[in-house]
Amino acid sequence: MFCAISGNAPLHPVVSVKSGNVYEKELILQYLKNNDSKDPITGEIISEDDLVDVKTTPSAPAAPPRPPNLTSVPTLLFALQNEWDAVVLETFNLRQQNAQLRQELSHALYKEDAAMRVLARIQKERDEAREALANIQSTLGGGDEE
Question: Which residues face 9 on adjacent strands?
Answer without folding.
Answer: none
